[in-house]
Amino acid sequence: MKEKENNPETAAKEPRMPLALGNYKLMLIGFAVIVLGFILMTGGGSDDPNVFNPEMFSFRRITLAPLLVLAGLVFEIYAIMKRSK
Fold it and tell me: Whole-angstrom Cα distance, residue 40 to residue 68?
């Protein structure tokens, strides 16, 4: 069994997945963070185009949501680059 692990010919023939299950779990978490950021961006509009709604420029929509989307994207990069043991 040790010979099979150390033999480069058999190691090259065995197919390996480029990402492990842990990577996919981390990617799902990052995707959920990105979706949450986009959900937080929604709303704040006005039904009447002649009425201004200052709620459109709230902290949640202008600052928090874009930071969540950016953090989710950075987390996605980490999830893809992380090596499994």
Answer: 9
Cα 8 to the center of its chain, rounded Å: 35
pLDDT in tens, 67-83: 999 999 999 999 999 98
Domain boundaries, the chain: 17-81
Exposed, middle or buried: residue 30 (CB in 10 Å: 0-12, 13-18, 19+)?
buried
Q: Is the pLDDT of residue 64 over 90?
A: yes
- Are the CB atoms for 35 and 68 separated by under 8 Å? no
Phi, psi of 45 (to 5 degrees): -80, 180
